[in-house]
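Q: For a teaching session next week I want to show students how multiple molecules come together into a single three-dimensional assembly. I've collected the sequence lines for a complex. Could you give me the predicted C-alpha cells for the whole thing so I can convert them for display?
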Amino acid sequence: MALTFEDIARVANLARLELRPDETAHTLSQLNGFFALVEQMQAVNTDGVEPLAHPAALLGEVALRLREDIASEPNQREASQASAPAVERGLFLVPKVIE
Amino acid sequence: MTSSMNNLDLHDLGVAELAAQLAAGTVSSVEVTQHFFNRIQQHSALGAFLALDADVSLAQARAADARLAAGERTPLLGVPLAHKDVFVTRDFPTTAGSKMLENYRSPFDATVVSQLASAGMVSLGKLNCDEFAMGSGNENSAYKPVQNPWDTSRVPGGSSGGSAAAVAARLVPAATGTDTGGSIRQPASLTGITGIKPTYGRCSRYGMVAFASSLDQAGPMARSALDCALLLSAMAGPDPDRDSTSLDLPALDYAADLTAASQQGGAKPLQGLRIGLPTQFFGAGCAPDVLAAVRGALAEFEKLGATLVNVSLPLTELSIPVYYVIAPAEASSNLSRFDGVRYGHRAAHYTDLTDMYKKSRSEGFGDEATRRIMIGTYVLSHGYYDAYYLKAQKIRRLIAQDFQTAFAQCDVIAGPVSPTVAWKIGEKGDDPVASYLADIYTLSSSLAGLPGMSVPAGFGAGGMPVGLQLIGNYFKEAQLLGAAHQFQLATDWHQKAPGVSA
Amino acid sequence: MSKDQKSLLVQGYEVVIGFETHTQLTTQSKIFSRASTSFGAEPNTNASAVDFALPGALPVMNKGAVQRAIEFGLAVNAHIAEKSIFARKNYFYPDLPKGYQISQFEIPVVQGGVVEFFLDGEKKSVRLVRAHLEEDAGKSLHEDFIGQSGIDLNRAGTPLLEIVTEPDMRSTAEAVAYAKELHKIVTWIGICDGNMQEGSFRCDANVSVRKPGQPLGTRREIKNLNSFKFMQQAMDYEIRWQIEQIEDGHEIQQATVLFDPDTGETRSMRSKEDAADYRYFPDPDLPPLVIGRDWVEKTRSEMSELPRVMAARFMTGYGLSEYDAGQLTQSKATAAFFEAVAAASGQAKLASNWVMGELSRHLNMEEKSIEASSVGAAQLAALIGRIADGTISNNAAKQVFETLWIGEGQDVDAIIEAKGLKQMSDNGELEKIIDDVLAANAKNVEEVKAGNAKAFNALVGQAMKATKGKANPAQVNELLKKKLG
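A: Of course. Below is the structure for the complete assembly, covering every listed component.
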C-alpha cells in the first residue's frame, strides 16, 4: 500500500499543513517506511472481533455519564481570550470567511 | 529560621522524608522550595525546565507554611514538585513542548494540578517534554533537548524527559508525567527513577493537553514506590464533572498500604506473588545488558518469595503498528484545535483563511508532530478507515484479551521497559520507525489500559540505568506499588544518584 | 403512474425531496459544557473552556439533551437506541473551535420514525431515517469588518437534534407541509422553541428530479432555509433550474447551494475541496450513550398527549372530521382553547367552526397567537350557546364576536340586548309580518306562483327587511312556502 505524492498533498490539505517541496519527498519515504510496518496488521484475523474504543470496556459496559442541565459556567471571556492572536469587541478576528 | 538539617542534603530526601521534616518543623517549605529552586538554576544545562517563576513558587511555599503553622499535617503538605508541561496551569505558561503554544496562559488548572495543590504541594515550574508528548527521547521538544543526568550526552527518554531528568538529578523530589505509550515508564527506566502509569481512567485527563485520548494517563515520577504512592493518592480519583472517561473509582490511600506492608516485614513478604514473564519480552530484540539487569532484579523478587512463571503475549510485536495507527489518528483530531484562531501561534503573513491555517500550523508544529498528524489523517481518511483504524481497534481488543489470558496464570507481568539503555542525543537520526520499534515493551499495556510501573533495577552498558517493568491487572496499582516497595526495601538501586546530583 | 402522481410532475419530471432539519433544543446549558444557551448575549460570554476548545478541555454530556431526543423519538414512533455512539466529524472552519464537530454517525440515538400530515385533504406520510444529537457551531460575523470576519462562539455547543427524512416527498408543497408538521411536533412537545428567525429550526432541502421510472437523479442541497415562505420559493426555483440544465444537455453535479431571497435564486456555495472527507471516528472522550428501556417508558408515560393522538380523540370524542381535528391540533394552545369552548358550550361542531373560522381569521389579521386572543374561551362558548339555542342567527353572532373582539363589550347577552340582535322567535308575530309583506307585494306573489324563483327570493328579502334581520331566515323561508302553497 504505497503512498504517492497525490496522497501526501491530499492529506496535508485535509490537515491544513503545508509541506515544502523538499519536505514532501522526504515525508513520502518516511511514511512509506511506516506503512510497511502497518501492513503487518492485515495478517491478524479479526473476524467477529469488536473494536476496543475504551480500554475499560473490556471489563464490562462503560456508559456515558450524564450531568444535570444546569448553566453554571459564568462569563469568562476575558481570561479565555488572554492568549488570543486577534480580538475586537469580544470577537475573534480571522481572514474573511467566504461562504 | 535555623534548622538542624544540613541544607545541602535536602535534595537527597524523598517526598515522604521531606514531608516528615516539614511536619516536624525542622525545615520550612520556603527553605525547601528555595533550596530546590537554586539547584534548578545551577543545573539549567540539563534543559529540564521550560518555565520557572520564583515569586509564584515561594508564594505557594508560604501558603503551605501557613497551613503547617495552623497545625495541618497531611502527607504532601509543603513538599515541592514540578509538572510536565502538558498539564495546563494558571500560574505558569503551558507549551506542551511546542512552539504552537509559546507563551500560552491557561485560564484554568488541570484537575491533577489542582488536586496536588490542594494537598499542599508547591509547584516549582513546568518541565520540558517531547512536543505534544510525542517522542521517546525528549529530542522532539521545540525548545531544547533534555540531558540524561547520568550521561549528559545521552537522552533521558521521553516524552516525560524533563520530569525524569529533574527527579534523577534531584532538582525536584517528585514530578508529574504522562504516559500514552510508555512516556512515564521509559524515561523513568532510562534515568533510574520510579514511575507509574495507572489504569486508564484512574486519573482525570481534564487539563492534560490531549495527545491520544484513549491512551493518555497522568502519573507520578519520583525516587521510590512509596513516594509515587503518596502522589498517586492525591492524583487519582473520579472527575465526573469534567472528564467523561475518568472511572467512578474512589482514590485509595496507596501509601498507607505500603507502610502497613513494610511493618509486617517477614523474610518472604512477596510469598504467593506470581510474576509472569512474557517470552516475547525476553527475546533477541532486547539488549543483553538490559536483560541481565532485569533478570538480576527478578532474582531478588524470588528471594522475597515471588515465583516466576512463563507467559505469552503473542501480539506484542503487532502492538507497534496498532498503537502507531490509533494514537496518531486520535492526535490528528485532537491537534486540529491549534489553528491560530483563538490562541497559540498565528503566522505573521498569510493571504487568506486557508493560508493562515496552513502557515500557522506548519510553523507551529515540529517534524514529529507533523508526521503523526499526517499518519493520523491518512488512516482515518475515506477508504482507509476500515483497513487501518478499525482494524487496529479490533487487534487492540485481542491484545487486551491476551493480557487477561496471561493474568490467569500470574498476578503481575514483568520484563524490561526499553530494549536498550539511553542512547546518545542525535543518534537515532531521522528514522522515526526505528524509534517506534523501541516502544515494543510498553505499548501493549497502554493499549489495554493496564497499570504499569518502572522500577530501577540496576545498570547496563556505559553505566546507564535499567528499569524493570511491572504490569498489573486493571485497578491493581496498589499491588504493583506494594511489590515495588518490597523490592526497594531489600535493594538500593533506587537510591543511586548520578554525579550531577551532588 | 397514477393520475395524482402525474399531476405532480413538473414539465414532465418527477420531483424528489428529502429534508434535514436542525432543531436547537430547549436546554439551559450546552450539550457538552455548562455554559448558558441564552439568546442574544454579548459575544463569547456564553462560552466555557470546552466551547473555546482550550487545550485540556473535555466534553461532558447534558442529560436534558438526551431527554429531549427521547421525547422526539416517542413523538414520531421511532426506535430509541439502547446504545448510541458519538463521533467526531473533522473539518476546519473558524466557527468550529475544536476543528471537529461532535455528532453521531453510524449509530444515532433515534432510528426510524414517521411524520404524518395532510396536504389538500390528502394524508401524507414521510418516513424518517434517523434523528441524532450533535453540537451547533459558532457564528461568523462579516458586516462590521473589512476583509475579516469576527467569530462569536456563544452558539457553539448548543444542543441540536438533526432530523433526517427519506427522500419521500414528491412536491415542494408537500415538503413545506412536512416542515410545518415537524415544526408543530417539536414545539408541541417543548423540545424546541421553533423560533426560525433566531435559528432554532433550520432546514436543508435535498432536491433532485427524474423522469418517471428512472433512477434517482443527482441531488443538490439547499442549505439553511429559515422560513416556510422562502422554503417553497427556493425549492421551486431549484427544480426549474435543474430541469433547465437537464433539458440543455448538462448533467447535474452534486452541490451545496444557498437561496438568495433578494434574487429568488439558488446559487452554488464556494466549493469546499475534500468537503466530503470528514474522517468520522467514535469520539474517544465520550463512552457510548446508554438509554435503558425504563427511562424510555417513564418518558412515554409522562409525555402529554401528542397532536396526532389528540386529533384522533377529537374525531371519536367530538365527531369531528379528520381535517378539522388536524386543524384544531395545530398547537397545544389551540387545542386547549377549542376543548374549553366545546366543554363550556356543549357544542363541539360549532366550537370547531368558530375556532377555525372567525377566531382564526381575526388572529391572523392581527398576527396574534391564540394565547393573546381578544376573545376568551368562555366568551366564545357563551356566544356559541346563543346560536345553538336559537337566540341569535349566525350572522348576528359575527357582529357580537366583532364587538367582543374590539373590546366594546364583554358580556355576550348584554351585547345581544344592546344591539337588539335577538332573532325573532315568535311565530305569530312573524306570520303577521309575512302576511303584511305578501299583501304589499301582490305582483311578486303572482310571479312566484308563475314559477319565478327570483321573485321568491325577493319576498324573503322583503320579509327579512321587515323584521330588521331578526327573523330566522330558515323560518321565513318555511312560512312563505307554506303560505304561497
